[in-house]
């Protein structure tokens, strides 16, 4: 058989893509180039690094070229790949829902720490938090809600693919009426309307606006859900919100005003207060 047609080598493909991404303003140019070339070739990043002179066949080169053009337009890598890792699970992701962030794993850590019998995940999006909790707390009863039907569709697809469909109940809305939970987790929109234009294009132009922007102050969604969530808690229940930079103090005051007796913050890996946790009397 004749040798397969090639379109350059790994080193050349990575260099060209990295240069193009840098010119487009991408901060993680080399990493993104490696992730996309690995996807296009079916290799992993370690294999690419070990064989920089390996040829890239023409079909892989076409796939890579298509992905590079999308990334130059600042489409998020997770949407291009169609997946994102979160805790111990891999999630399908697309523009129907926000891309799961590492910071949101703090909410799962709180669930693992508290070991509640029941959890409500408000604003579930792709289902990341609810499904991660289901994966790590097999005896926990979990309800996940969202106001977006498209997001709920994606979350159910992820639950089916992960074999967790029987572990999580997905419902439209926010806080179900006449239900009680030991723990409520919420990653809600918290960006101010006026700040949207200044966000990275990956967020501003591609992720669903309703999952990003809360309103003029940035705390509108949190304030509404906090009151309903407080009323839904068991006597020793807890409520945890993911918040934006600089919002932890205001959200902590909100929880104190609602009646939580213990309120604390949790920092992300950058040292930014990212989660506010309120607990009922113990």
Q: What does it look like?
A:
This protein has helices at 10-23, 29-41, 45-50, 58-72, 77-81, 105-114, 128-136, 149-162, 201-206, 220-232, 248-258, and strands at 6-9, 55-57, 83-86, 89-92, 118-122, 141-146, 168-172, 181-186, 191-192, 213-215, 233-242, 262-267, 273-279. It contains eleven helices and 13 strands. It folds into two domains: 6-73, Helicase, Ruva Protein, domain 3, CATH 1.10.8.10; 94-279, Rossmann fold, CATH 3.40.50. The protein has a seven-stranded mixed sheet, with helices on both faces. The model is unreliable at 1-5 (pLDDT under 50). The protein has 282 residues and is α/β, with parallel strands linked by helices. Helix 1 runs parallel beside helix 4 (58-72), helix 2 (29-41) packs antiparallel against helix 4 and helix 6 (105-114) packs parallel to helix 7 (128-136).
Layout: helices, strands, pairs:
Elements: E1 6-9, H1 10-23, H2 29-41, H3 45-50, E2 55-57, H4 58-72, H5 77-81, E3 83-86, E4 89-92, H6 105-114, E5 118-122, H7 128-136, E6 141-146, H8 149-162, E7 168-172, E8 181-186, E9 191-192, H9 201-206, E10 213-215, H10 220-232, E11 233-242, H11 248-258, E12 262-267, E13 273-279
Parallel strand pairs: 5-6, 5-8, 6-7, 8-11, 9-10
Antiparallel strand pairs: 1-2, 3-4, 11-13, 12-13
What's this model, at a glance?
The strands form four sheets. Strands 7-6-5-8-11-13-12 form a seven-stranded mixed sheet, sandwiched between helices. It has a two-stranded antiparallel ribbon with strand order 1-2. The protein has a two-stranded antiparallel sheet with strand order 3-4. It has helices at about 10-25, 30-40, 45-50, 60-70, 75-80, 105-115, 130-135, 150-160, 200-205, 220-230, 250-260; strands at about 5-10, 55, 85, 90, 120, 140-145, 170, 180-185, 190, 215, 235-240, 260-265, 275-280.
């Amino acid at each position: 058989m004749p040798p397969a047609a090639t379109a350059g080598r790994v080193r050349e493909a990575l260099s060209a893509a990295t240069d193009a991404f840098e010119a487009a303003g991408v901060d993680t140019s080399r990493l993104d180039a490696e992730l996309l070339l690995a996807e296009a070739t079916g290799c992993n990043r370690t294999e690419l690094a070990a064989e920089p002179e390996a040829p890239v066949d023409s079909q892989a080169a076409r796939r890579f070229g298509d992905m590079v053009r999308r990334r130059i337009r600042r489409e998020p890598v997770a949407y291009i790949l169609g997946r994102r890792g979160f805790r111990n699970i891999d999630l399908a992701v697309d523009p129907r829902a926000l891309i799961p962030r590492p910071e949101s794993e703090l909410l799962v850590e709180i669930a693992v720490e508290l070991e509640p019998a029941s959890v409500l995940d408000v604003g579930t999006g792709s289902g990341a938090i609810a499904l991660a909790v289901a994966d790590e707390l097999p005896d926990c009863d979990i309800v996940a809600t969202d106001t977006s039907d498209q997001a709920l569709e994606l979350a159910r697809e992820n639950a089916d693919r992960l074999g967790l469909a029987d572990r999580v109940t997905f419902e439209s809305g926010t806080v179900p009426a006449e239900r009680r939970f030991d723990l409520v987790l919420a990653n809600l929109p918290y960006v101010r309307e006026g700040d949207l234009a200044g966000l990275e294009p990956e967020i501003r132009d591609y992720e669903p606006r309703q999952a990003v922007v809360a309103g003029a102050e940035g705390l509108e969604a949190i304030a509404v859900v906090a009151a309903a969530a407080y009323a839904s808690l068991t006597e020793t229940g807890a409520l945890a919100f993911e918040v934006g930079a600089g919002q932890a103090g205001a959200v902590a005051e909100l929880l104190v005003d609602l009646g939580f007796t213990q309120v604390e913050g949790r920092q992300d890996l950058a040292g930014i207060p990212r989660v506010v946790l309120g607990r009922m009397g113990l």
